[in-house]
Amino acid sequence: MRPAASRNQLHRAPPINERPNERRRLGGLPIARDSLVLVCLGALGRDSRRFSNPSDFVADRFIAPGADPRDVLSFGLGMHRCAGAELALVTAEIAFSQLARRVEALATVSALQRQNRTVVRRFSKLEVHVSRAPAADQQRPQAP
């Protein structure tokens, strides 16, 4: 379930920008050549015609029957897919796996604060309370 949870989190807010090399129309509106167009692919992840409960975090959304991993557009798609996408997903899977072994619960302490940025979203404040798993100090990762 961890890879699916990572993909679900990524599909929620992945922005991408584009500069059209010719005049275009988008949703009936003219887009001038070389205009900066910000496409928030996270909005696609909020489409209730495609996803049930689109604004909810559903950890197993991408392993459920009928799920399509291509719905996660955070790293682009096709020939424009990020070359490091699989490395990022595997790294997240390992990190969350290790966290789950050592932590019983996480709870937010205060409201999350995001930085208002155009391309890369991140938190400026994320305070959490960590409840360690029993005997977490004795657990060590096992060699493969």
Automatic annotation (TrEMBL):
SUPFAM superfamilies xrefs: Cytochrome P450 (SSF48264)
Keywords associated with the record: Heme, Iron, Metal-binding, Monooxygenase, Oxidoreductase
Pfam families associated with the record: p450 (PF00067)
Stretches for region Disordered: 1-24
Family according to the record: Belongs to the cytochrome P450 family.
Name of the featured protein: Cytochrome P450
